[in-house]
Backbone:
């Protein structure tokens, strides 16, 4: 491709709309343009990258025996009503765009395709002989994200590969799950990315497991906790660890003490000269269920630890049936304005005890009349502990369960693991922290959707059984940007060779030199003939600008037909290392061919 004929516009200035390096660079280098919030045009260079990533994904999926198909993006509401997700997705979470057609029918734009694929499976899979089956597609997804940001990282329209597998039993599901795990590792390796598979939260669906594939980058939205022996890695949302040992309590008798200005654990421990491990901290959460019911939850946890909101959310979703609800719309620590909606009198914030009285709640049919107490496991064995006195400016010390306080009935793990904690599998290992971009997520769904939608098969004994399902997503557009986030320098993008839009750029420093033009044209054609994807910078203009642009767009190898032509040579520069060498014109093509093969194999 000749740059002179391409839609090619680079920006010198940093675009104000972008925060992270990869987003800035893709805008500056002319790969993408923002059309609306979370909506981007993939310009020709970007589209080439996306096609390459898609092709790698396709090859690795095909290698597992999965079959490609293409499912509709416009989906009838009835399918989502059957699975019970319509209201949650369109109203509660609001992640799904919905519309009404001319015949007044409700439709949604596909954020994901479990419903559609399950409907197909219900219709077409009859017998165990048709199993297992794995179908995938590569397609644009629509999600009305609350906070679209970082360009393609979190768009409202983005490209995903999603696969759905069907099985007669759990062991077959586990087999395919393993195959997908391998395929995902291959995909990310072939795309030239440094990544880490981690244990992931499976949300309220439960199931026996899910894994995320994290591309390692400081700008990643996710925190990963891992051990250096390579035996443990988890998203912090899911991670477990051994809590630190409890220090002996300095208190031996129960007392209420005036503790002014100690609404934080740090201030309290300084004031009382005790360890945060001696404190029972009580955190109030306001949960709103999908039927509008507000429930106030009091989580008691050891003072040195923080509540993991994903874990507490999972516990609260389990309680939904008690309130005739299915799921949660919101979960937050209520501020003063929020409290006004349900508090009968001001709460002793910072001084709350595990037994906060229910008369703080004003009668309201949309508010549960009682606090729901939940204990984190860390508090169960505490003795002579410190906690709030339910009175501003006061705490109690030397308290014990079954004496001054009753341990909540619901005892669960809602603790956030953190770097420095000891690992469960080997207490000598401590957890380390890294940041990552979730590029893929694989999931054992079990029979949730097949049961909800009546997708069954007949087993060998002639019995109707629900299908076992797995689902496997990879964000093609997010992955492409993640590659940039992992690989750039002050001059621009450094594409991994496997997914670069072009492998080589031939730069003519001076287009008025016939010799330079002729040499460049010949190289351009020779490279093209052996299948090396090449850009020819044949624009009029200063050499310096062309070099800057070549660096900015990140093409792996740059050939310059400059001064050394007189010795029958050209300059060849590797973008990643900046290494420059003079090669005789005859050996350029074969040398670059070898470099490319070494990078991506053949
Ligand atoms: P996240 O936690 O980042 O919102 P998710 O868990 O909702 O993602 P999945 O439903 O697991 O995402 O989707 C599969 C893959 O699709 C993700 O691993 C990610 O790579 C990609 N993806 C999800 N949401 C977006 C988005 N808004 N923009 C770009 N890619 C996305
Ligand atoms: Mg996910």
Residues:
């Amino acid at each position: 491709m000749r740059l002179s004929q391409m839609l090619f516009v680079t920006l010198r200035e940093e675009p104000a709309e972008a925060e992270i390096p990869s987003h800035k660079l893709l805008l500056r280098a002319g790969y993408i343009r923002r059309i609306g919030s979370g909506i981007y045009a993939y310009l020709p260079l970007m589209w080439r990258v996306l096609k390459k990533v898609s092709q790698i994904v396709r090859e690795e999926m095909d290698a597992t025996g999965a079959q490609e198909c293409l499912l509709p993006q416009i989906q009838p509401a009835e399918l989502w009503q059957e699975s019970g997700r319509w209201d949650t997705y369109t109203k509660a979470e609001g992640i799904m765009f919905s519309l009404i057609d001319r015949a007044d029918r409700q439709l949604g734009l596909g954020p994901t395709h479990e419903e559609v694929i399950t409907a197909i499976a219900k219709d077409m899979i009859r017998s165990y002989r048709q199993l297992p089956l794995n179908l995938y597609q590569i397609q644009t997804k629509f999600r009305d994200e609350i906070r679209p940001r970082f360009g393609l990282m979190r768009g409202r329209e983005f490209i995903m590969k999603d696969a759905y597998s069907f099985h007669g039993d759990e062991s077959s599901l586990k087999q395919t799950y393993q195959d997908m795990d391998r395929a995902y590792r291959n995909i990310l390796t072939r795309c030239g990315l440094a990544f880490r598979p981690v244990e992931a939260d499976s949300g309220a669906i439960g199931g026996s497991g899910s894994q995320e594939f994290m591309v390692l980058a400081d700008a990643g939205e996710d925190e990963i906790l891992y051990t250096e022996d390579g035996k443990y890695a988890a998203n912090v949302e899911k991670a477990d660890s051994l809590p630190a040992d409890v220090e002996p309590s300095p208190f031996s008798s129960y007392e209420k003490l005036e503790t002014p200005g100690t609404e934080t654990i740090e201030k309290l421990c300084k004031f009382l000269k005790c360890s945060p491990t001696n404190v029972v901290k009580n955190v109030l959460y306001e949960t709103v269920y999908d039927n509008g019911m507000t429930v106030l939850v009091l989580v008691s946890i050891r003072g040195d630890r923080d509540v993991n909101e994903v874990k507490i959310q999972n516990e609260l979703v389990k309680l939904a049936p008690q309130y005739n609800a299915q799921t949660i719309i919101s979960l937050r620590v209520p501020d003063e304005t929020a409290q006004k909606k349900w508090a009968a009198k001001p709460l002793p914030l910072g001084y709350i005890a595990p037994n906060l009285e229910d008369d703080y709640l004003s009668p309201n049919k949309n508010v549960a009349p009682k606090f729901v107490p939940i204990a984190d496991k860390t508090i169960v064995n505490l003795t002579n502990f410190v906690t709030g006195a339910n009175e501003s400016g006061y705490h109690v010390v030397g308290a014990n369960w079954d004496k001054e306080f009753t341990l909540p009935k619901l005892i669960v793990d809602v603790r956030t693991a953190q770097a420095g904690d000891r690992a469960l599998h080997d207490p000598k290992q401590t957890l380390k922290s890294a940041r990552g971009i979730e590029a893929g997520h694989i999931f054992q769904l079990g029979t949730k959707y097949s049961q909800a939608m009546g997708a069954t098969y007949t087993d060998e004994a002639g019995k109707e059984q629900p299908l076992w399902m797995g689902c496997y997503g990879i964000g093609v557009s997010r992955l492409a940007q993640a590659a940039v986030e992992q690989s750039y320098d002050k001059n621009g993008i450094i594409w991994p060779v496997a997914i670069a839009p072009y492998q080589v750029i031939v730069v003519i420093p001076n287009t008025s030199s016939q010799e330079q033009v002729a040499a460049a044209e010949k190289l351009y054609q020779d490279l093209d003939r052996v299948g090396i994807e090449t850009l020819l910078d044949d624009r009029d203009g200063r050499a310096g600008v062309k070099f800057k642009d070549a660096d900015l767009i990140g093409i792996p190898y740059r050939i310059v037909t400059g001064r050394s032509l007189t010795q029958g040579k050209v300059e060849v520069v590797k973008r990643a290392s900046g290494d420059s060498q003079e090669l005789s014109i005859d050996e350029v093509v074969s040398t670059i061919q070898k470099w490319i093969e070494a990078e991506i194999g053949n």
About this structure: The longest strand covers residues 432-446.
